[in-house]
Amino acid sequence: MALLRLPDELLLFVTSYLVLQRDLNFFAQTNARLYNLLNTYLYRYDVGQNGSSSLLWAAKHGQEATAKKSIAEGADVHIRSQLQWTPISWAAFNGHETAVELLLATVGIDPESRTSDGKTPLSLAAWNGHDEIVKLLLTTKGINPDSPTSREETPLCLAAYRGHEDVVERLLATAGVDPSARTLTGETPLSLAAGNGQERVVKLLLDLESIDPNVKNSRGETPICWAAGNGHEANQGMVMDEQHYR
């Protein structure tokens, strides 16, 4: 192919007339020489013309090499999706530990970036039970371990509701975490766990002397009410036993 016998400078000149990224991608995949020549150009094009979308994609899918190359070519680590998710939001939510580590090591990263509903990377990792990422974030400077969402749900509330025992244990052992934090409607980690049938988490929380098993939400419902109303008899029994002994 005569085109491929052209010097690099002319190939790059031809490339400059390709305005769509898909055309650039197709051209770069023609052969190994073009790929090696245009790979960096593609990343720079993405940063300049597509708002660093490659980094957002790489963080979401755990593609560390792509994320690293994108950052090296100047990608904006604070780029946001439609719902205000940043690359570190996606990496934490989907459990991509190496991507989270890479992003945390990037100068200027905000480890407390919030989604449209106020969730931080720690909240997202806690929600999905990614204990190693929770551990990593808790050791990061500037992290608030009790940071609430727009509904006043702390990472502990989210982990308790979902039944992530390891994450709950880690958060309970972290300074600054309130085991009796309340959501916007007055739910506590105990009532959320009891109402959602998370027996192991209920037991963990009831083992704490500071936990009040009779605490009521804004509608006057106790954890027993939540457990009974949702058909979780085991949780109802545990809370009732705790009430008896306190």
Tell me what the structure shows.
By secondary structure, the protein is mainly alpha-helical. It is 54% helix and 0% strand. It is built from 15 helices and no strands. Helix 6 (87-93) runs parallel beside helix 8 (121-127). 39% of the residues are buried.
Distance between the termini: 84 Å
Helix content: 40-55%
Q: Whole-number average pLDDT?
A: 84
How big is the Rg? 24 Å
Biggest sheet architecture:
none
Instruction: Assign the structural class, choosing from mainly alpha, mainly beta, alpha/beta, alpha+beta, or little secondary structure.
Output: mainly alpha
Task: Note the run of SSEs as H and E.
Answer: HHHHHHHHHHHHHHH
Spans where pLDDT lies below 50 across 5 or more residues: 234-246
Question: Can you tag this structure with a few keywords?
Answer:
246 residues; mainly alpha; 15 helices; 54% helix; elongated; disordered C terminus; Ankyrin_rpt-contain_sf; repeat
